[in-house]
Amino acid sequence: MLKRVFFALIIIILAMVATALGLDRWISWKTAPFIYEDVASLPHRQVGVVLGTAKYYRAGVINQYYLYRMQGALNAYNSGKVNYLLLSGDNAQQSYNEPATMRRDLIKAGVDPADIVLDYAGFRTLDSIVRTRKVFDTNDFIIITQRFHCERALYIALHLGIQAQCYAVPSPKNMLSVRAREVGARLGAMADLYLMKREPRFLGPLVPIPAVHTVPEDAQSYPAVTPEQLLELEEKLRK
Question: Hey, which of 89, 191, 216, 228 has its CA 20 to 30 A from 27?
Answer without folding.
Answer: 89
